[in-house]
Amino acid sequence: MRTGMLALALGLLCLGFLPVLPTVGWLVVMLLAALGCLATRVWPLGCLLLGFCWACWSAQQALDDRLAHSLDGRTLWLEGRVVGLPAVSAHGVRFELEEPASRRAELPRRLQLSWFDGPEIRAGERWRLAVTLKRPRGLLNPHGPDREATLLARRIGATGTVKAGELLEPMASGWRDSLRQRLLAVDAWGREAALAALVLGDGSGLARQDWQTLQATGTVHLLVISGQHIGLVAGLVYGLVAGLARYGGWPRRWPWLPWACGLAMTAALGYGWLAGFGVPVQRACLMLAVVLLWRLRFRQLSAFVPLLMALCGVLLVEPLASLLPGFWLSFGAVAVLIYCFAQRLGGWRPWQAWTRAQWVIAIGLLPAMLALGLPISLSAPLANLLAVPWISLVVLPLALLGTLLLPLAGFGGLLLWLAGAALAGLFDVLTVVAQWQPAWIARQLPLLAWLLVLSGALIVLLPRGVPMRGLGALMLLALWVPGKSLPQGQVEVLQLDVGQGLAILLRTRNHSLLYDAGPARGESDLGESVVLPTLRKLGVDRLDVLLISHTHADHAGGAAAVQRGLSVERVVAGESEQAFQAQSCETGQGWQWDGVEFSLWHWPQGRSSNDRSCVLLVEAQGERLLLAGDIEASAERAWLAAHEGKRIDWLQSPHHGSRSSSTEAFIAATRPRGVLISRGAHNGFGHPHAQVLERYQRHGLAIHDTAIEGALSLRLGAQSQVAGQRAQRRFWRDKE
After folding, report:
1. The pTM of the whole model exceeds 0.90
2. How far is C-alpha 54 from the chain's CA centre?
3. Which domains does the chain have, with CATH numbers?
4. Which of 219, 247, 327, 384 has the fewest Cβ atoms within 10 Å of its own Cβ atom?
C-alpha cells in the first residue's frame, strides 16, 4: 500500500516541474499503459502514471478556462456574483467574481477584480460591471514569486480593473462578510483586523508593517488560518474529552476515543466552515481526518502512512495545490516533526518536546525555504517559542468563544477585547524581535550546494548519539558557498521586471551598480518587494553606486527601500531628491571597474525632469550599452551632439518607448543591435508607442520587452544575446 501511495504521490507532484503539458493523445497512451501496469508486477508504475495523467488533465482544464487572447486588454460589460471576502484597502477593493456572464464573449468561471476608489462591495452581491480584463500574468524576476502559478492554482482565469458598475442584487448569503463587519466594529485594542484574520482567515485588513513584523519573526502562519489552527481546535476538543475520561468526568457507557476523534473532527470542520473552506483549510481538514482515522484504527502503521495518505488525498482533490509554497511548507513541517520524533527511544518532557520542535522545524524547513526563495527568519525559533502557545492557548480560544457569544450583550465583546489586548501585547514583543533580527534573504544556491544543505539538515536532525552528526553541521556551511565570479572585462546586465518603471542591475567581477530602483506609489513599493529581494537572492549585499536617473516615482520610488536594505557606497542622481542625499550627475564623470568603462552624461538645460535624466554609457571589450532613463527628443539631440559617431550595441529604450523619444535621428546615429524596453503590460500611457516599435523594426533592432519576456539578462563584453526570464518554460506561463 505504501509503495502504491508513494508512486501515486510522485506522479501527482511531477506537475510542478513540467515545461509543457502532454497532448491529449499522449495522455490517452499513458492512461492505457497505466491500466496495463496495474495488472502486472510493475503496478507501482501504473499508480505513478495514473497520478501524472490526472494532474495533467486537471491542469489543462484550468488552462483552458483562462481568458482568450483576443479579449486580453479589452473592456467588457459583465455580470456576476461576488464570492469570498472582498479585500479592502485605502485605495479600493479587490474581490472575486464567480460565473461571470457577458453578451459579447465567453468568460472564465472565476475572475479577480480590483476597483480603485469604488463603492463598498459585499460577499453574495450581484453586480453589473464594466471591466478591463487581462489574462493571468505577473512580474517575473530571477528566483522571485510566480504570480501566474498562484492564480492558476486558485483557478482564476482572468484579472481585471473595474471602470464602472451597478448593484443588481443585494447580499444574498454573505454571513461571513457580516461577521467580519461585526468583528471590525468591536473594541480590540486596535487589533480588530488581526482578530478577523484569526477567526475568518481574512488578512486583508492587516497593515503592511504588521505583515513585515510577522515575516521577520517567522510567525506569519499564526495569523493565516492553516493546519496549525485547525489542528489546535481539534486538539483542544480531543484533549478535553481525553481529560474528562481520565479523571472520571466522561460517561463510561460512551467509549471516549471514538467520541474524542469524532468531536475533534466536528470542531475542525466547524472552524473550517467559519474560515470559508479555502484550499489551505481543505488541506488541513483532510490531513486531520487521516490522522484521526490512524489514531482510531491503524496505530500499528508508521506515522508516515497518514502523512502519505493525506498528501495523495489533497493532490487528488486539487492537483494544482503543489504550485503553492504553502503546500510544501505545511507538508514539510509535518514530515520533519515525524522524522525527528516518531522513531525516538524514550520520552521527553513536554517543555523539552516543545522547545526542540521549534529548532527542528527551523532547520528542517531551511532547504524548502531556500528552494522556494522565501525569506528566512533567524529569530523564528525564539519568536514561535512564545507566540505559538500564546496564540494557541490564550488568543484563539478567547477570539473564537467571543465570536460565538457576540449575540450575548457585552459578554462576547468583552472576550474579544481581552483577545485584542493579548494580541496587542504579542505584536509589541514581535516588533522588538523583528527590529533586533530582521528576516534573512539568502542567496539562491546552485543545485549541488542546495543538495548539501538538504543532506546536512537531515543528518543534523538525526537522534543524539548517531555518529557523524557533526558532518551535517559542516554540510550546512554550503549556505555560504561563493557564487561564480565574472571574467575580467565583462559586465552582467539584468533589467528587472518592475512593471511601469525601471531598475537595472550591473555587476562586474567585484562591483555592483543599480540604475534606478523601481516604482513606488502609495503602499506599493517595488523597491522593497521586488528589487531588494532580487538583489539579495543574486548575492548582492552591497552597491558601489546607486544611480537614480531622475526624480519620477517610477524610477526613484524604490530608492529609499534599497538604501534601507543594502549598504550603498555612493548615490548619484540626475536631479536633487529630498528623500536621499546624492551626488549630482555631471557630464564627463567616469570610472573603470574590472576592465569595464562607465561614463555619465547629463543635460542640465533640459526643460523637463525626463530630459534631465542621468545617462550612463557602459563599455565592455568594445561592446556598448546605453542606459538613457527617460530622455526625450531634445535630450537625444544633445546627446548625439556630444557623442558624434558613437555606435551603441544595446539601448535601454528611452522613456519606456514613448512617442516623444527614440527619434529617427537617434536610432539611425547610434545603430543599436537591440533595445530593452521596461514597462507594464496594458499600461495607461500606451508604452511602447506603435510608431516607435515600427521604427525599431525598420532599423532591424531586436526588441526585448519585460512585459512580454519578464526580466531581461545580458552579458556585456561576451557578444551574447538577451535572455528573458519567461524563456525558462513552465506550462502555466503565457507564451504570448
Report:
1. yes
2. 26
3. 2-64 (no CATH), 69-173 (2.40.50), 199-218+377-444 (no CATH), 447-480 (no CATH), 491-727 (3.60.15.10)
4. 247
